[in-house]
């Protein structure tokens, strides 16, 4: 981790290049050592509470003129001051500024987040990222960026007189697909063995739009159905427990129906297929971890 800076440090961070719209690419690249994620050690007298790390997520970061959507590893927590230690948002921000400057980063903005910007974040996303967006619409955001040759590190401190301060660290990284293509024969083998098989289909965030990368897997599912004309399939959509329950139910149902429509487009008789969304009612893993939530977000085929 970056070493802790004394609480009375008051050196302001370098400012980001000024322009009408903030340009990430205009920020100088730093090669200073960072240490391990989440890179920042809190100043003396403060500790993190409600800390959470998500291995891969998409979150909005306020840049002063817009919400910049960033994908990667996310850490977030609120702050707690020790007994007898007065809480000071200024002290926290000064420490962050000094740390960011010391590793070649810049201060992007220190400004109030307008309600209109927060309202542009879809409600389902706000429900799903409740921790990451904690008190965002009531806060002043101190946003910093450390730009690296291979990734960016965003740090955002949020504070207001009405709510405890919180912060978020995002290390950008490209998405690495871990799902594998199951050939028609393997799909059929699992279906015959257990009665159910998971279909690796990817959707646009919070939508029932099937991404083009899923087409080869759908083609294999259609091939399985063509190879066995008597086979009838129920498509089940499932989500994790993040966000509104009724929204998740509708989303999972729409995704199941989207898969049916894709199979019909491959020439499969719609009468052999059915679709139903189950929302978060049938988890297969612990929703308390990101890995568990990822396993619960799925589409399953089962014999009818």
UniProtKB/TrEMBL annotation:
Q: Which residues lie within the region annotated Disordered?
A: 278-304
Q: Which InterPro entries match?
A: Bact_OuterMem_StrucFunc, OMP_bac, OmpA-like, OmpA-like_sf
**Domain spans labelled OmpA-like:** 190-304
Q: Does the keyword Transferase apply?
A: no
Q: Point to the regions of Basic and acidic residues compositional bias.
A: 290-304
Q: SUPFAM superfamilies given for it?
A: OmpA-like
Q: Does the keyword Hydrolase apply?
A: no
Q: Where, per UniProt, does this protein localize? A: Cell outer membrane
Q: Which UniProt keywords apply?
A: Cell outer membrane, Membrane
Q: Which PROSITE patterns match?
A: OMPA_2
Q: Which domain of life is it from?
A: Bacteria
State the coiled-coil residue ranges: none
Major subcellular site = membrane
Name of this chain's protein: OmpA family protein
Organism ancestry: Bacteria, Pseudomonadati, Pseudomonadota, Gammaproteobacteria, Lysobacterales
């Amino acid at each position: 981790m970056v070493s802790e800076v004394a609480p009375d440090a008051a050196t302001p961070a370098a400012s980001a290049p000024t322009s009408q719209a903030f340009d990430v690419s205009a920020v100088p690249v730093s090669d200073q050592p960072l240490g391990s994620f989440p890179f920042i050690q809190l100043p003396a007298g403060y500790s993190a509470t409600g800390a959470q790390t998500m291995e891969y997520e998409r979150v909005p970061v306020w840049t002063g003129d817009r919400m910049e959507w960033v994908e990667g590893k996310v850490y977030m927590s609120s702050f707690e001051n020790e007994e007898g230690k007065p809480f000071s948002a200024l002290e926290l921000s000064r420490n962050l500024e000094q740390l960011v400057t010391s590793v070649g980063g810049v201060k992007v903005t220190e400004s109030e987040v307008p309600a209109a910007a927060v309202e542009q974040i879809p409600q389902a996303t706000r429900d799903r990222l409740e921790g990451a967006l904690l008190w965002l619409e009531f806060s002043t955001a101190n946003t910093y960026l450390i730009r690296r040759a291979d990734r960016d590190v965003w740090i955002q401190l949020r504070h207001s007189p009405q709510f405890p301060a919180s912060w978020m660290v995002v290390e950008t990284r490209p998405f690495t697909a871990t799902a594998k293509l199951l050939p028609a024969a393997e799909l059929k083998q699992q279906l015959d063995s257990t009665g159910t098989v998971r279909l690796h289909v990817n959707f646009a965030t919070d939508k029932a739009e099937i991404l083009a990368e899923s087409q080869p897997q759908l083609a294999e599912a259609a091939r399985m159905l063509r190879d066995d004309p008597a086979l009838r399939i129920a498509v089940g959509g499932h989500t994790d427990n993040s966000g509104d329950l009724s929204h998740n139910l509708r989303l999972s149902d729409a995704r199941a129906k989207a898969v049916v429509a894709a199979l019909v487009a491959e020439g499969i008789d719609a009468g052999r297929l059915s679709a139903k969304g189950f929302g978060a009612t049938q988890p297969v893993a612990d929703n308390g971890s990101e890995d568990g939530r990822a396993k619960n977000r799925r589409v399953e085929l089962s014999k009818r």
